[in-house]
Amino acid sequence: MHYHRAMSISPRDLLAALSADRAVSGSELARTLGVTRAAVWKQIEQLREIGAPIAAAAGSGYRLVWPLELLDAARIAAALDAPTRARVGIDLHWQIDSTNAELQRGAARAGARPLRVCVAETQTAGRGRRGRIWQSPLGGNLYFSLLRRFEQGMGALAGLSLVAGVAVIAALEDCGVSEIGLKWPNDVLARDRKLAGILVELGGEFLGPCHAVIGIGINLRLPESTRARIDQPAIDLATLTAADALPSRNLLAARLIARLAAALDRFESLGFEAFREDYARHDLLDGRAVRIAAGGLAHEGIAAGVDARGALLVRHGRKLAHYDSAEVSVRAAD
Ligand code: BTN
């Protein structure tokens, strides 16, 4: 009797068999995983194409460029308190088009749990704000979305995207990250560069039952090749924290769930007003000279916080303008 070696392996199993501490040879991997060396080689190439941090050392095999903690739904759930765990369903994907798109597709189905979370190791069509692409290489960053239902209709959700920003800051702070702030409406910045982005998408009725999908992308480790494809200054947590203090992605996902669940409950009953002070504490634009692009026009002024609905306030001479939706850039000091 002889064995047929499988021709393909799960990319996750292969990645889990690699280490950052030592190189593992192709033949050792083939033996451990019960496949041919050719199958190992092919899968390594495919993993590298989607951004996996695998270095090939001539003669000695393959090694991870950094230690990798794979996403694990059980570990995320274990890090939640019991009441939150009971409210949330967590879906983990190895690869998906977009975690936001996935929750939108499922939104019509009545979920068993009031909150749904979708996380993925990589996205093939990650969505950014204003139709941009969110670069989503595998094996380092966090791609996370949460779906929350609301009874009172989309009309009551002004300010929600700012609330999400406040919750993301709190979750990062829970994981020991400091000196971060918000650029209206909800870009998370550190050292004036983008650390995390948030995309809120609404569905349902304006006056009746509706839902919000809150998508969050956090840069933990940005490979050089990805950085080159991003059209704005970006930063990752590995740059901000000491090597041994990089937050666990599973723990960070759990803190996002906990902070968002609590913030959305509070927002549902009290509205944005209850978050205005919190937002102000993290507002990086306040008092800065800004350029606003809204409705095809550009205006310059001084940012002056947000109003009770979360609209951006900008002083143009003696006039105070409220912007519900606009693209803001900070003007260089002259
Ligand atoms: C931005 O442009 O700043 C928003 C980026 C949001 C990216 C996240 S990654 C997880 C979720 N799924 C997506 O397709 N987009 C969001």
| SSE string | HHHEEHHEHEEHEEEEHHHHEEEEE
**Relative helix content:** 25-40%
**Separation, N- and C-terminal Cα atoms:** 80 Å
Parts with pLDDT < 50 across at least 5 consecutive residues? none
The major beta sheet can be summarized as: 7 strands, mixed
Identify the strand order in the major beta sheet: 3-4-5-9-8-7-6
The count of DSSP E runs of length 2 or more, i.e. the number of strands, is 14
Rg, Cα atoms, Å = 22 Å
Structural class determined from secondary elements: alpha+beta
Bound small molecules, by name, code or SMILES, are:
biotin
In what range is the share of β-strand residues? 25-35%
Gross morphology = globular
| Number of helical segments with 4 or more residues | 11
Mean pLDDT: 93
Describe the structure.
The strands form three sheets. A seven-stranded mixed sheet has the order 3-4-5-9-8-7-6, sandwiched between helices. The model has no long low-confidence stretch (mean pLDDT 93). Helix 2 (26-33) crosses helix 3 and helix 7 runs antiparallel to helix 10 (249-270). The chain has helices spanning 11-16, 26-33, 37-49, 73-78, 82-87, 99-106, 160-174, 224-227, 237-240, 249-270, 276-282; strands at 54-57, 61-64, 88-96, 115-123, 142-150, 181-183, 187-190, 193-204, 210-218, 289-294, 297-306, 312-316, 319-323, 327-330. The chain is globular and about 70 Å long. The chain has 334 residues and is an alpha+beta fold. The protein has eleven helices and 14 strands. The structure holds biotin. Biotin is lined by residues 98-100, 123, 126-129, 132, 134, 143-145, 187, 197-199, 215-217.
